[in-house]
Model the fold of this input.
Amino acid sequence: MLTANEIAAMRHTSVTALPDTCTITRTGGEPTLDPGSLDLDYPTADVIYTGPCRVRTRDAQELNVQVGDLHETLGPYVATLPALAAADGVTAGDPVNVRVDDYLVVTVSVDAAIVSRAFQVRHISWGSWQIDRRLGLEDREQPQGVEVPS
Done:
């Protein structure tokens, strides 16, 4: 059986291996119609987590879906986050509070092509001696009202 110190050491090793930074947001509700301009006003998205992460493709094929007249290709990805909230002054929020349908945006990466990409959380892995938090993602269009942090 692993001790608390061994789990803490493995979690520390995992966090130090996360090369990217991401922000996870949750949309703040339904848009409202501005009666003056007749524009839709989108509520501000709540930031759930900002901190270290790693996003990579999953060993699976893309899924082609048809929705009405639209065709979309959903790419399966997995994100790795720290298992627990950090008290490091850099990480904000708690990776345990992430929910299905939240949006993850990579804000800093060694792969410039992934920066500003929006991914929708589709699955969250849970487990007893969790060393890190794994999220199943789909490469999705970012919804209105979710801004890419700068």
